[in-house]
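hey can u check if this looks right to u? its 336 residues, i copy pasted from the old doc so theres a chance i mangled smth
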Amino acid sequence: MKILVTGAAGFIGAALSLRLLERGDEVVGIDNLNDYYDINLKIARLERLKGYEKFKFIKVDISDRQAIEALFVKEQFQRVMHLAGQAGVRYSITNPHAYIDSNIVGFMNILEGCRHNAVEHLAYASSSSVYGANTHMPFSVHDNVDHPVSLYAASKKANELMAHTYSHLYKLPTTGLRFFTVYGPWGRPDMSPILFARNILEGKPIDVFNYGNHRRDFTYIDDIVEGVIRVIDKSATVNESWTGNTPDPGSSLAPYRVYNIGNNNPVHLLTFIETLENCLNKKAIKNLLPLQPGDVPDTYADVSELVNDFGYKPETKLETGIGHFVDWYKAFYNIL
């Protein structure tokens, strides 16, 4: 297939593009290569893809309406995996406009491109953050998610609503994926694995928020990519039993679906740190801090719908995933 991957220089986007190319798909990757984090890491990810004849990279911002319109008209994609967007819960506290420009305006441009160019299926990145103030565990796609606690979460919830509208009005099949704390080689340097690894190895304190009482559904990158590919390959369908009297938030009478993609096994943050310490063979100096604005104490994915519809559940053990991450980190940053 010919597939557009937005955010192709990102953590998930680059890993997904590599797997799609390995199986023979034609991939057009776009990214604006912004400086939210080290651009050299983004460039290094793209270098892994440039050896494939069926890969094309275009530097473009999804908020550029005319550029995105032209891209869709020229390339005529069959499927789209939309991963581009402004990430980060805490950054949304200090720079909210970036989330509107990228996650709202940008997503609108992607929807319009799909609508006007007969795209067969749009899959897109949502987030576990949409569960916000929910306390019922594990988080289920059948739960109400109307109480976000960060603008980032609100923007992802808005994406789900916008996608549903296009599925309803134009019969565009859309599938949202609520990612749960993705980690592994080539990960984002603003996330805890790299932040922690760097400071531990340099003998500097690590900031441990909520006094280490967080639980996170850490999900290994290879597991995420496998799930994403299965979703791309199977277009969203209508739920014939859906009713407005008892509406199911995870499906619709339109070709619209939402899935959790997580490990279904929450881990205490202190356990995660201990595992990282073991793999690095060095103890951390912990700076225990209170819960940060916009953070949620726990994430825990109910992935039963993913299992039922795609026969898939992430399975990589934390010790294995952290081991692979540490091996990559030392090699990439030339640490002996």
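Residues 2 and 77 are 5 Å apart (CA to CA).
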